[in-house]
């Protein structure tokens, strides 16, 4: 986190993929190691923590690090939620109840509400945030994106988003914002991108391929791939698992779904995502063991070209 801030990156996002590392503890550590960069949670699941507990955590973080906490909230990967017995029958209802509960508690309301998934009986934060915390939603499908436009301040876009998807997302968010009488132009979009850069373009794309096939196998049928136009093809590949996807996915997918290549290629891919409607592109290093080298190379060779 400190290296990224020192190298001039504008924001940092910390994931919470189950069961790897905790997002709230990781984000708090990153905030403590830095002085000005905002730190986003990208994402925590609405289902894993009750909104009252999540509101308390976010308020505590915000009071310690004002104007630097950007929570992204979504459902999470269905497989992981099912492992915990937490996958909701109505995803829209669960997300609405979570986000509106957070809003009310952060506004220092004494909240009593009976919901389908989350209920509150005279819950009020003893230490509410001293500022309005921007709430992002990390969602994929059309109805969820409309909900994000309606009730959230921003959207976190998953890895493997092509520019076509970002443009489509902006349309769905705008429809939701219009329904609520909100200004869609203020809705912020941060797009995650699997990233590998090298002076050797082929080496960079080879480095990002395993991470690409892993995430494609975890999300074999989604709006990401349907909008891109490969949903059915990917579904067939996914029947053989990650190994089959890794062997059979076309090279063009690595051109369109990730940011990988030599510096000029990467800069051009950044620009396409920004032109499509992203407010920021968040680098997700494909090789965690080479994190420092990736950050330094990107800062030195790629960012000046964007």
Describe what this molecule looks like in 3D:
The chain has 306 residues and is of the alpha/beta class. Helices cover 49% and strands 16% of the residues. The protein has helices at 2-6, 23-33, 51-64, 78-83, 91-106, 142-151, 163-179, 201-218, 223-228, 231-238, 241-248, 251-256, 263-275, 291-302; strands at residues 12-14, 39-45, 69-74, 111-113, 120-123, 136-138, 154-157, 188-197, 259-261, 280-285. The strands form two sheets. Strands 1, 2, 3, 6, 7, 8, 9 and 10 form an eight-stranded parallel sheet that branches. Helix 3 links the parallel strand 2 and strand 3 (69-74). Helix 5 (91-106) packs parallel to helix 6 (142-151), helix 6 packs across helix 7 and helix 8 (201-218) packs antiparallel against helix 11 (241-248). It is globular and about 60 Å long. The model has no long low-confidence stretch (mean pLDDT 96).
